Amino acid sequence: MSRQARKLSATGYYHIVFRGINHQSLFEGDSDFLYFIESLQQIKAEMAFEIHAYCLMSNHVHFLLKENKTGDISQIMINEICNVL
Asked: Which of 32, 59, 61, 75 sits between 20 and 30 A of 23, alpha carbons compared?
């Protein structure tokens, strides 16, 4: 049985988590963290969304994002942020 699609937020806020498979590290060193932050800044400049908070750890990442246009979260995640990892 497949998982049901998540519903869009009425407020536009999303808590997003990326995790490494089997606790595998996403970031090996400081340069990896810096690359991710720089890439995120570039993506944010190209797309309309707000970053309210983030926490980068070696094997997972948390974001609190707000989309400015309903439904943009799909574009933000699939076409942009996931390409950084």
From this structure: 75
